[in-house]
Amino acid sequence: MSDGDAGDARLVEASTLPGVPDEFQRLWTPHRMAYISAGPEPHRETCPFCAAPGMSDADGLIVHRGVTSYVLLNLFPYNSGHLLVCPYRHISTYDEATAEEVAEIGALTQRAMHVLRAASRCDGFNIGMNQGSVAGAGVDAHLHQHIVPRWATDANFFPIIAKTKALPQLLGEVRQSVAAAWDA
């Protein structure tokens, strides 16, 4: 601003305008609005893992349908490509699964690892099941196994310092690439 403009209240510094970079970092995560809108207990009335197979693959985020189990993207992923393997049957713990379900969950997990390596060139995985709310399961009534791809370069300060995870791809894009790689 020039000296003559200093008294004009209509003139503002560019750094104070919306959309101009400032000291705050913003992560736009519109996919999380479904979770926020659902309220504090979104899965009390409808099990999302029972509902997903009744939807189209795109709407249910399903990348593969097996005989006893299926594979879908996690709606609230830890990393891009975060997959879940779920039996179609509504069971809550691994020891309730039949031998056929256990075998297919294992086979689908192994296939998912191959697919994620091909589709995203990941370097490793976190694989596990949280069974029961006390163990951290967000949907504790329906068994599901997590397959989280990891990259040598994905560790940064966000999760450690800011308790924030940056996801570089939208869920629809990830579902398309994983589903295409599954059938390749």
How would you describe this protein?
The structure is a single chain. With 184 residues, the protein is an alpha+beta fold. The chain has a single domain, classed as 2-Layer Sandwich (HIT family, subunit A). It has helices at residues 33-37, 48-51, 57-60, 99-120, 157-162, 171-183; strands spanning 62-65, 69-73, 83-87, 124-128, 145-150. Strands 1-2-3-5-4 form a 5-stranded antiparallel β-sheet. Strand 1 and strand 2 (69-73) form a beta hairpin. Helix 4 crosses helix 6. The longest helix is centred in the middle third of the chain and has 22 residues, at 99-120. The protein is globular. The protein starts with 32 loop residues before the first helix and ends with a helix. The model has no long low-confidence stretch (mean pLDDT 82).
Concise account of the structure shown:
It is built from 6 helices and 5 strands; from the N terminus they run H-H-H-E-E-E-H-E-E-H-H. The chain has 184 residues and is of the alpha+beta class.
Descriptive tags:
184 residues; alpha+beta; HIT family, subunit A; 5-stranded antiparallel β-sheet; 6 helices; 29% helix; 14% strand; globular
Q: Low-confidence spans: pLDDT under 50, at least 5 residues?
A: none
CATH fold field value: HIT family, subunit A
What is the number of helices? 6
Structural class: alpha+beta
Please report which band the strand proportion falls in: under 5%, 5-15%, 15-25%, 25-35%, 35-45% or over 45%.
Answer: 5-15%
Total strands: the figure is 5
What kind of assembly state do the chains in view correspond to? single chain
- CA-atom Rg in angstroms: 21 Å
Distance between the termini: 60 Å
Q: What's the architecture in CATH terms? A: 2-Layer Sandwich
Mean pLDDT: 82
Give the topology string: H per helix, E per strand. Answer: HHHEEEHEEHH
* Spatial order of strands in the largest sheet: 1-2-3-5-4
Count of folded domains: 1
Shape: globular
| The first-level CATH class name | Alpha Beta
**Main beta-sheet strand count, sense and barrel state:** 5 strands, antiparallel
CATH superfamily: HIT-like
The amount of helix comes to: 25-40%
